[in-house]
Amino acid sequence: MEEAFRSLLLSTVPLSALVARRIDWGLRPQGDALPGLTLQRISGAPIMNLSGPSGWSRDRIQLDAWGRTFKDARDIGDLLAGHAGRGGLLVGLRRDVAGIRMRGFVVARRSGTDSDKIGPIHRDSIDLMLTYTAL
Asked: What confidence tens digit (pLDDT) does each residue in 107-117 have?
C-alpha cells in the first residue's frame, strides 16, 4: 500500500508542482528543500468479519505538509484535504493504483511549527483513514 499511496500523491500534478518528489514515508531528510510532505502510518489492522479476515485493511495515515511559510504548508494541505467546502484529493478518496484499491476520508487536520538552522518551518497535518486491499 505504501508505494501505491506515494505513487498516487506523486501523480497528482498540482501537488507534484509544489513538492516535486519530496514525499517520503517516515522521514524528512535533513537539509532537504521545502516544501515537502512526510507520511506516517499511525495505526492499522486487518478488517475482520464474523467469518474471518475480509481481505481489507484500515490504517490511519498522518500526512505532514512542511513549508518555509504557513501559506506553503497550508496550500499543500488544501490540495489534500480541501478548503472552504471544496474537496481535496483525499476527501472521499476512491482510487485503484498499482494493484491496490484505496478508499479514504480525512478525519482531522491541524497546524504547527518546528524549526531548523534557517528558522521556523510550518506544518499542516492531516489524518486520513485509509482502507485498502490488493486487486
From this structure: 999 999 988 88
